[in-house]
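re: ur question from earlier - yeah i can do the single chain one, its not a big deal. heres the input i used so u can compare w yours
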Amino acid sequence: MRVRAQYRHRLFLLFYASTILLVVGLAHAADLVSQETAFQYIPKAVASSLEKSQIPQDAISISVMEIGQAHQGKEIQYFSKTALDWRSTEAMNPASTMKLVTTLAGLDILGPQYRWRTKLFTDGAIRQGVLKGNLYLQGSGDPKLIPEELARMMKDLQGLGIQKIDGNLIFDRSAYAPSVMEQNTIDGEALRAYNVTPDPLLYAFRTISFQMGKSRTADFIDINYTPALANFKINNEMQLVDRSCDSWKKDIRFEINPESGSASPNQSISASFSGAFPNGCKGVAYNVVALDANTFLTRGFIAAWELASGTWAQTPTGSNGIVPITARPLLQFEGINLADDVQDINKYSNNVMARQLMLTLALEKMGKPATTENGELVIQGWLKKMGLQFPELMIENGSGLSRNEAISAQHMNELLVTARKLAVAEAFYNSLPLAGSDGTMRNRLMTQLRKFLHLKKKPEARIKTGSLSDVRAISGYVISKSGKMYAVTSFINHPNAWRGLEAHDQLLAWLLEDGPEPKQAR
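and the output i got, formated as tokens:
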């Protein structure tokens, strides 16, 4: 009897313990579900905007992380916690927000003060102010060799005692593999500036920018252009029409004659405009990639040299070649620093600059000729060093101008959180477009930001945008009205994505107001 009583007592204890464990387990599971669903919802204003735009909720991904910091001695430790999560682990096309991966890796690997070098050589000699011999330009991919920089290069040449050049211009593009300079577009718009291909000797983005507007003194259209090009003329046959400036491009016809590359530098090239131009336009820019790389650089160099009062023994024709081993260096021209270049890449979403930065990573770390494959290897190696594992990441060219590039919203946010821990944190942060102020966010969130004008410390949104025909994307930082910092990333991949701008603005406005309140799932 005593044995049976002890047995029953043990069974009771076992049953009791099992019950407690079951209850605790169920409570813990319920708590996990509660915590999980608390973050997995779409804010009401965002959901309403999606519904109005006929964008299903399974076409959007959202990740919001609050970034905090704590002081440990003299060091600052950063931490993050999830504030909102909606399909954040899905691999999505990020469009131009992919530039955040490229620029952060570039800043950290190369340093904000990195400068591209364009080297000039000659196979001749300088005598009595004349460079008798060919002038070789060897590029390393400076993405912002613009007219102001080329003018500075001309002064440096003249500082060597050169007033006249008696020889040809030879362009050494051996820094890049030929494949990366081939024209491949995702939309067939080869003449559009956003589709310019990489070039180790890229000048002025190989883009002619025509400035158009109604003349102040008469009823005709003024057309000017930059950069200066030798023997380049404008034939203006456009007519003014009484109309607003909306859709001003649709009635303009443009052609160039003769075709690019078929004219020697001594022969004029004419850019002809015809059609209708609205008198409501005060000043607009018509940007076009109309000349091949050699023609554009040759005519640009000739014009820049002549604007600096330099002369030629005979007009150079410009051709491709490799710097001979026997050539002697004349000068090493350094462009603007990387931090300034990254500002242009992120604020104005410059595709070719981003692509050339990725190729520069390949060039500096793996040698020439640089390839996009090597650039990706360098970035993937850097991510691994940072402790970031992004198995779904697909990098095609580093600019986001791609149908194949992919990353998840969660991993993009992890990148943003990591950025705060790096020495280049502020250079990266300041490169992002500031809502209501500059870049691609200049005209966004204007109404929402006016609500905070009375506050001493204004909230702000530093957001990189991205867009393709079926993609809208945002990624960056929001500092809310209470001073909290959030990393936010959202991708919309859907044929109606072009309607998704409002939904993204609603998300950012919600964060400016300290939106994250994990109360209910939607």
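The chain is about 30% helix and 25% strand. not sure if urs matches, ping me
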